[in-house]
Write a structure and sequence with these properties.
With 503 residues, the protein is α+β, with helices and mostly antiparallel strands. The chain has three domains: 5-308, no CATH class; 317-436, no CATH class; 445-502, Arc Repressor Mutant, subunit A. It contains 15 helices and 17 strands. Strands 1, 2, 3, 7, 8, 11, 12, 13, 14 and 15 form a ten-stranded mixed sheet that branches. β2 and β3 form a beta hairpin. Bound molecules: adenosine-5'-diphosphate (ADP) and magnesium ion. Residues 25-29, 174-177, 216-218, 226, 229, 231 line the site of adenosine-5'-diphosphate. Adenosine-5'-diphosphate (ADP) binds next to β3, β11 and β12.
């Protein structure tokens, strides 16, 4: 294997081989399960985790004489997805049979779209960690059926098949070979997933198989023509996609540097070993004997239908992010974090609206405090508790109340942290917690003056030293008063009162 790579700026990822530098070329085919209660050509349910073979109709089991009926909702979701990616929507598309034999494919063919996909060229803007942005082209999106699942590890002598997924609608979203590093591929999948989730056309749950990627990788001398690619099938996490690309690229470089050639093939990624290994040599399209699906008419879309799909799109992550920067004055970093997924941006927007309401201020004036609290305190706690934002024990309204209590001086920063910890445990409102547990900041000058008097009486020598010119002792007095108040004294008030008392 060649030596270490340099993962430099702006997505350049050069492998320094023995014979010189190599560059990566990456294209992804993402399979995204369409959010729909029924399958692409049948009325069977699509719930995840159901009893095996409990969601299988005669159509999905390919009983003789059964006919597919196209699910309009899946078409609608594919068109919305195309529109969200700024892609061309094809008014006329067609389903084709892709013929192959596999135990989990009872029809003996998959209904897919080959020459005439429903969606044509589009693009996605991605952003890398260093803030650089790139555009990745989308080649096409087509609709197709998923296959069932063979199960080989339940019995030593039998293989089983679960057809629950058989016929589930997938969008195959094919990128152009526009990515040049594992980080770019990761950013692409993250952006795509955020868009799919925002518009609700796919839930994007990679662990449940709702989104998986076939990863195409080749290497070349920088700037020369593309090399032969290998396709790594069905990679189901962003981390594995990065690992698979890094491994695969170095494997290819090693072969080329030995004077070998790359064979176009389909490979598998083994997450335990961190390696890819050969599955089969790549079939050519003609091996599948594609032909137009005779049981379905071509799909024709009206302008009106496309206009309705367009009108149903919510604000997309990229637009939201730009608005957070421009209208709320948030940094690109915070805007990016808060729009990375739909749940987070929804939570933040509710928090922000409630915060502005409670404090009677424009959103712009409280946005940064709210954003910092959410990305710092809240995300930190959720991380620790291993919870998603949607499972947060603290609601946006409670977050807004907590921020308001800090803003009006009822809680100091440290007290707010204490109250927040209790909110996470008890789910109680911060006002109630502060009241019942006596965690309010003491700004009452009478009480604080008494405490200051006590502290001065207990330390006459220090008082004398301070008055004699040892200014540094001021901090000592502040500390003592804070301690005596159990950390609840308002530091600003303490400072002012102490200055007066010691002066
Ligand atoms: P196939 O059906 O053979 O998988 P597709 O056209 O569906 O072919 O997908 C090809 C994928 O491979 C696309 O995502 C494309 O960007 C990518 N790709 C094409 N050529 C290369 C290459 N030389 N190196 C890396 N990726 C490539
Ligand atoms: Mg393909």
């Amino acid at each position: 294997m060649p030596g270490p790579y340099t993962d430099g700026h702006a997505g350049t990822y050069i492998i320094e081989g023995r014979t010189g530098p190599w560059e990566l070329v990456i294209g992804l085919e993402v399979h995204a399960q369409v959010t729909s209660r029924a399958k692409l050509f049948s009325g069977s349910a699509t719930d995840f985790g159901s009893e095996p073979n409990s969601q299988v109709s005669f159509v999905d089991a390919a009983m003789p004489g059964m006919l597919p009926v196209l699910n309009g909702e899946c078409v609608r979701q594919a068109v919305r997805t195309g529109l969200a990616l700024g892609a061309q929507i094809n008014r006329w598309s067609r389903f084709d049979r892709k013929n192959y034999f596999y135990a989990d494919l009872p029809q003996g063919y998959q209904i897919s779209q080959y020459q005439h996909p429903i969606v044509g060229e589009g693009e996605i803007e991605i952003e890398l960690e260093d803030g650089t942005r790139h555009t990745v082209g989308i080649e096409r999106i087509h609709l197709e059926q998923d296959a069932g699942k063979s199960i080989h590890d339940l019995s030593p002598v039998f293989s089983y098949v679960d057809l629950n997924r058989s016929g589930v609608a997938l969008m195959e979203i094919v990128s152009k070979p526009d990515m040049r590093s594992p980080a770019e591929a990761a950013a692409y999948v993250a952006s795509l997933r955020a868009i799919l989730r925002a518009i609700g056309s796919c839930d994007g749950n990679m662990q449940e198989g709702s989104m998986r990627a076939d990863v195409n990788v080749s290497v070349r001398r920088p700037g020369t023509k593309f090399g032969t690619r290998c396709e790594i099938k069905n990679v189901n996490s962003i981390r594995f996609i990065q690992q698979a690309i890094a491994y695969e690229a170095r494997r290819q470089v090693a072969i080329l540097e030995e004077g070998g050639t790359i064979r176009q093939e389909t490979r598998l990624f083994d997450p335990d070993k961190g390696e890819t290994r050969s599955l089969r040599s790549k079939e050519d399209a003609h091996d599948y004997r594609y032909f137009p699906e005779p049981d379905l008419l071509p799909l024709e879309l009206t302008e009106d239908f496309i206009a309705q799909c367009k009108a149903s799109l919510p604000e997309l992550p990229g637009a939201k992010r730009a608005r957070f920067e421009a209208e709320l004055g948030l940094s690109p970093y915070l805007s990016g974090v808060l729009t990375a997924d739909a749940d987070s941006s929804r939570w933040f927007e509710t928090l922000l609206a409630e915060t502005a309401d409670r404090q009677g201020k424009p959103q712009r004036d409280v946005a940064e405090k709210a954003a910092n609290w959410m990305t710092g305190e809240l995300f930190g706690a959720l991380n620790r508790l291993d919870l998603a934002i949607a499972e947060s024990p603290v609601t946006p309204a409670q977050g807004a109340e907590l921020l308001a209590l800090v803003a009006d001086g009822t809680l100091s920063g440290p007290l707010a942290k204490q109250v927040f910890e209790i909110m996470l445990e008890t789910r109680e409102d911060p006002g109630v917690i502060a009241e019942e547990r006596g965690l309010k900041q003491v700004s009452d000058t009478g009480a604080l003056e008494r405490t200051i008097g006590d502290v001065m009486a207990a330390n006459p020598d220090k008082v004398a030293d301070y008055r004699g010119g040892k200014d540094k002792l001021f901090g000592f007095f502040v500390g003592q008063v804070m301690k005596a108040s159990g950390g609840k004294a308002n530091p600003a008030v303490v400072n002012a009162l102490l200055k007066k008392a010691l002066g």
